[in-house]
Amino acid sequence: QVQLVESGGGLVQAGGSLRLSCAASGRIFSSYAMGWFRQAPGKEREFVAAISWSGGNTYYADSVKGRFTISRDNAKNTVYLQMNSLKPEDTAVYYCAAASVSLRLRVGDAYDYWGQGTQVTVSA
Predict the structure, then answer these.
(1) How many CB atoms lie within 10 A of CB 89?
(2) What is the CA radius of gyration of the chain?
(3) What pLDDT, on a 0 to 100 scale, did the predictor assign at position 76?
């Protein structure tokens, strides 16, 4: 079992930055690939970014590439999402997730555990 707790969300103006954190507890964090997803009101959940268990491979949605950076610190059991140049369309609840198998990391069904989410609101 893995418990995931997101933090760092909030209200920011367009062009600003936020850093989300996801703290994991339970089973060995370093053995899981980690991902970030988001869901805006009235929309389906969408993939944002993912990182392999070692941190050596990262993946991004086209909509955030060049603006967001995913990273992890296995010593701290934490994964981060640095979000720069935020846009109003980035407004959503952001979820982190853990996958025991590093396949299809852009797909939500690949993940075994999910956090409760943190709200990010970007004002125009």
Answers:
(1) 10
(2) 13
(3) 94
Dihedral of alpha carbons 46, 112, 95, 103, sign: negative
| Three-class SS state of 30 | helix
The token duo for 29 is 């964090």
Cα(35)–Cα(61) distance, integer angstroms: 11
Three-state DSSP at 80 gives: strand
Round to whole Å and give the CA distance between 44 and 73: 29
| Residue 35 CB coordination number (10 Å) | 27
* pLDDT band for position 26 (cuts 50, 70, 90): confident
pLDDT at position 9 is 97
Over residues 27-38, the pLDDT tens digits come to: 788 889 999 999
Strand order in the sheet with 78-83: 2-7, 18-26, 78-83, 68-73
- Residue pair 3/96 in contact (Cβ under 8 Å)? The answer is no
CB 38 within 8 A of CB 91: no
